[in-house]
Amino acid sequence: MTPKALILHAHGTNRDLEAAQAFELAGAQTKIVPLNELRSGAERWVDYQILCIPGGFSYADALGAGRLLALDLNAYFADGVRAFVETGKPVIGICNGFQALVKAGILPGEKSEGSNHRSEEGASTSDFQHPTSTLTFNESGHFECRWATLAPASQVCVWTRSLAKPIYCPVAHGEGNFVLADPEALFNLHAHDQIALLYAKADGTRAHGEYPFNPNGSTADVAGVCNPHGNVLGLMPHPEDHIYPHQHPRWTRGERGRKGLKLFENGVKYAAQM
């Protein structure tokens, strides 16, 4: 079966076409769907096997980056999003999409001792929590538009599982600083292997907070996190902007590789096996 990827479009979204191209190269069928078509019933969540919330400035980032889109996810579209998460379908939020997933309380999620754990079969309703983290203003105090190296870290996350090489791709955000409510929240992310991607130096080693390798000051160099069951990934950088060799900023000087396409291939492969 060829999975179908649902790529959400809100007013201000501007990375939906790039995301669609990445999923198509990875082997999925794609459709960019305005939120109003889901609201009216012209499009149905159940007809898709992958959900992507792409980057941009949804609703002009009024009230904060991704906040109004997060309200949509929790109000108008709660049932559709919950069905994706709980049945284990792969979900990815990139940049503004990550901000929306975090502010909706879908990421990072929590693993409760008494939760209905279903691992490969799907996530439990315990994944939906009051937000324990947020994405706030970059420590540099300005918008960061540069290329960054990402080191895959999680083997629980279906998107990063088995990724051996770093990913080199752009960042473009003003509010990408991932912060947590308390030290225990960071401990839990480590304990449940939810830190999916880390900001790294060019050789793939941890950035350890060093600017510009960690471009926004994110806690523990976190560039992306997944939910406890690994089917939902959120990340600030844009792997969809490095899926062809010629997109590498120094490709004319012979530098190639570290594309982001493998991450999308992992998500498509996982969806096809469900």
Describe the structure.
By secondary structure, the chain is an alpha/beta fold. Helices cover 23% and strands 22% of the residues. It contains seven helices and eleven strands. The protein has a nine-stranded mixed β-sheet, sandwiched between helices. A two-stranded antiparallel ribbon has the order 5-8. The longest helix has 12 residues, at 261-272. It is globular and about 45 Å long. Residues 112-127 have low confidence and may be disordered.
Q: In a nutshell, what does this entry contain?
A:
By secondary structure, the protein is of the alpha/beta class. The chain has seven helices and eleven strands. The strands form two sheets. It has a nine-stranded mixed β-sheet, with helices on both faces. Strands 5-8 form a two-stranded antiparallel ribbon.
Write out key terms for the chains shown.
alpha/beta; 274 residues; single chain
